[in-house]
Each structure stands twice: as structure tokens, then as C-alpha cells.
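Page 42, continued from yesterday. The earlier attempt failed because a stray header line got pasted into the input along with the sequence. Redoing it now with the clean sequence only.
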Amino acid sequence: MIETNLTSIAAMCGGTLLDAAQEQIAVRGVFTDSRQVEQGALFVPLAGDRFDGHSYVEQALAAGAAAAFWQADHPLPEARLPLVIVDDTLLALQRMATHYIKQLDVKVIAVTGSNGKTTTKDLITAVLSRSYRVHKTEGNFNNHIGLPLTVLRMPADTDVVVLEMGMSGRGEIELLTKLVHPDIAVITNIGEAHLLQLGSRTEIARAKLEIISGLKEEGVLICLGDEPLLEQVIGEPETTQPASMNVVTYGMGPLNDYRPDSIMQMEDGMTFSVITALGERSVYSIPILGQHNVLNAMAAIAIGRLLHVPEQMIGAALESVQISGMRIEKIDTEQGWTILNDAYNASPTAMKAAIDVLASVRGGKRIAILGDMLELGEQEVQLHREVGAYITSHKTDVLLTYGKLGNEIAEGAKSHLPEGAVRSFQNKDELRNYMLELVEPHATVLVKASRGMKMEEIIKQWIQIKH
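This time it went through. C-alpha cells are written below.
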């Protein structure tokens, strides 16, 4: 993590020291949550609509913080504290991250996409960690606050940093990418998430492709070649991009630089071969389910090869990768049935991919528990019904839904599933109790919905057993 003194910090963020006599105070690390004070670190008090971190500066310093930012439009405290005065604490945090990453000899990889960006980030990190010292985004630190904190927590000897970039509207990814100027940018796909804010998949593609506006000259864009919107938006004159950019594609289509072949779903993961544009073929395995995760793995394979990770190491890394929780997380219960916990988030594309995973399960009853997909805008009812219509008796035996929009999934599925195989609930306890009447040894239960639905509450007792 960043280790410096107050003089250097003031220079990095464009601030001034409240007391010049404190210029040599040592600082190690940065934090923004006064409830989790980091000893010897810089506290950055952020101001929001319902809170103001300046109220906690003295408390943070008393608890062990070395110094703090202080926004110039706030009255100074009476005590003579080790403060760096800045125009805006958030902008100062972002400027400091930009300066820090420029100081280091580190290759920057940025990852975005409607679905799969966290899994792809984890896969890339696993592959590159076989040959490099790698730092990555943890948790949901993928926004205008989390990304600079991730950068500033990066050890100075890091070789590669893998940064996840999230967004809900236009301009957000442009801000993030211009803070760090990636060498490699990855776009996993263009889905329906954020239709509420952006209105169309074309606008979502434009928002995601903002990632190349900060890409370095001669940088590489790695993206899903099966998505025509990406090629369309790259070709639009309004799209900001480096004068020289290399594009590497992966996907199912024959014209991609990397395409999978012979995909097989095993009990605990996927085995597949990858064919390159040069006709080379290699076989890989990943311990996660779903064809969509095969595509995510191909982005990691492409980056591994681009950065000269030995082929044997790429395969070994993918085979043993650890993925962030609640993303097709397979949990075998003590009662002999299996949970596929995919409750982290959902969109129509991701929901259908999870249903396909359930469809491939052999042996035992298949139960899908699906909830509302949020932020889909005016098309939300139609999109939920389309997901329901996608579910047939070949893909699941029982469909249970939760929530107002989950009921629309049930309505869409009723004509495709036998009578009595579909039930909708508005109460999680009732849903759980009904599921327990149905579940039996060797059954598989898929749980998926948008994060705001907190669907893991339905299965939390089994998650606690296994974790």
C-alpha cells in the first residue's frame, strides 16, 4: 500500500498542509470508514447527502490514524490536527490514486461488463498470479470511491493490478478508466442490467465502451466478439479511443481469436478446449459451472497468453481458481441435496445462463428459485415473462418465484411447465418451507435474483453449515 509522508500526499492531491511542521509525518495506507480505523493511515472524510465524514476526523485521529484530509469549505477544527486541506476530499482521493499508480512499474488491467466481471477478474488474477505479483479489486470496490482505495492499497512491488469497473450510468466508467489508464481493457458482455438508467442495450454498450477512452496508446481491448453492438459502437465517431488499439475477441463464433470447443459440464465444473485463430488447440478445466463461465475463462486465457504466462501454468491456475461467493457457488448440504447459490445479482441474460446450468444437471429433482431482476426500466414485466417462457420441463422440474416481478416469471413459465410445477411467493419463509417439502436427496436447487432481493436469506442456514 502507499507509504509516504504528508508533504508527498499534499503534492499528489493538490492540497496544502495545515501545519508545515507536520510535513514529515509518515502515512501508510488510506481509509474512508471511521469505524474501521487503520493505524498510521490517512483518513479521507467523504461528504454525502446523509453523512459527513468530517464529523469523525478527530475520532479517527485519536484512534490511530496518522492524518486526514479536510475540505476547504468546512470550518477548521479548534485542535491543531495533522490535516491536508483540499478543495474536495473525493477528488483528492482520486488524484492521489492516479499519481500513485503512475509512480509504479505496474501493468493495469481493467474489467467491465454487464455480467461476469467479478468472476472474470478472479480468473484473470488466478492466471497471472502464476507468473506475477498481482493485486485485484476486492468485494464491490469497483466505483469512484472503491477503485482509488484499491489502487492505494496496492503494494509498491505489484507487477499487475486487475481492476473491476462498475457503473449505473454514462460517464462513470470514463471517470474510472481515466484515473488509471489501463494497458488492457476487458468487456465481458453487454446485457440488460441498467436498462432503467440507460434505456437500451446500445446505450449500455456505449457506457461499457467508455473503458477504452482511458486505454493507453497501443493498448489492448479484449471483448466478446459475438456481440455486434461492441463493433458498432467502436466504429461510431463519438467513441473516444486511443489512436492505436489492438482488439482481441473471444466467443462462440468462428471468426473470434479464441473460441471454445468440446464443452462438457462435469459434476463440479467445466472442461473445454480452446481453438485460436492460428488453429492451436488447448484443453482446460474450471471448477465452476456454466457455459458463460467458459467464455469468462477465455478472457483470462487470452490475457495469460498476451503476458506470456506459460501454457501449463494457465491450465493449472484455471483448474484451481477460487471464485467470489454467490456466483454459481455449489454447496452440498448435509441432507444430501445440492444448492447452486447464484444470488449475488441477476439480469435476463444471467438468469437464462443459470437456468442452462440447472438444465444440465443429471439425476435428482431440479428446483429453480428465482426472484426479481431490478433496474430493467419500462421493459421489466416483459423481460421477466421472457425469462419465464425460457423455462421448460427440459430445464427444471419445479419453479418457485419470489417478489412482485418474480411472479411475472411464474406467469411466463406456466404454459411451459406441468400444472402444479410453478408457484409464486411474496414471503421468504413460506417459500423456504415449501421448498423443504419438495427437496429430497440428490435434488439440485438453483437460487438467483438481483442483489437487492437478498435471496441468500432463503438458504442461509445451509450456507452457514458449509462456510
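Notes: The radius of gyration is 24 Å.
Reminder to self: strip header lines before submitting.
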